[in-house]
Write a structure and sequence with these properties.
Helix 6 links the parallel strand 6 and strand 7. By secondary structure, the chain is an alpha/beta fold. The protein binds S-adenosylmethionine.
Length: 282
Amino acid sequence: MGTLYIVPTPIGNLEDMTLRALRVLREVALIAAEDTRTSRVLLRHYDIDTPLISYHEHNKLSRLDSVFEALATGDVALISDAGMPGISDPGYELIQAAISQGVRVEPLPGPNAVLPALVGSGLPTDQFVYLGFLPRKAKARAELLESLIPEERTLVFYESPNRLLDTLEAVQTVMGDRTVCVARELSKLYEEFVRGPVSTVISHFTANPPRGEIVLVVGGAPAASDEAWDEDRVRAALQEHVAAGEPLSSAAKAVAGQSGWKRREVYALGTETNPRKNDRNP
Ligand code: SAM
């Protein structure tokens, strides 16, 4: 039985291909590629003429047999269009099947968009949560963000340029004016990091509509133990939102995101202070 190599490929800069990745792609019997046309450009650039088959989202289960046939007599490399296969890209099912059939799986370290975005964001890197792409539907996206309000670790999402502003607005509404970083076009000519409170980043991208590939990094909730606001501060912030005409439920969400308090606790404070603004249950 051969080895299944998981080979990351550049996310924008061809120089990010490692020497080991090049050697493996030359030596394997077969390369399973997410999009053979995209990968041919890369392979041609490095004079690699290993046979290719497609392995993508829509044939990832029906293709397993062909990949295992090739593994019976030789090594196979899995690549995606860019970055690490299996990270918001096809790969998981093949890797799982290979492990369960006793095939050696050898993942190579290499390009991926999460880590450069996180490290360049300036937000805490000691612990983070990668969440892939947010749901496209506004309600599901808001629900997911809401469930993440108490999360203290830095959050990392992939996002498309045409949804970025909606997502930033959802972050602001649900989580408050958190510090965020939009990492755009990593490793490419127009690489850009836009960092700051989400309100400022929204203003930036309203004036300069986003383009290209994007990773959104969102600061975690303040640690409950040492940074949670005291009650007076929470009341004052809530009062400010309500006085500006915001319904209590969304004001409570916003203040919860900033203060390290739970939304229900903030809402309860609000109903004491603003009994008639009790617009609906949280
Ligand atoms: N497997 C890839 C990886 O390891 O990063 C991710 C593939 S996913 C289909 C593509 C998404 O990754 C893009 O929509 C974008 O959110 C992010 N991405 C990929 N390349 C990027 C880059 N050069 N700069 C910023 N984000 C990037």
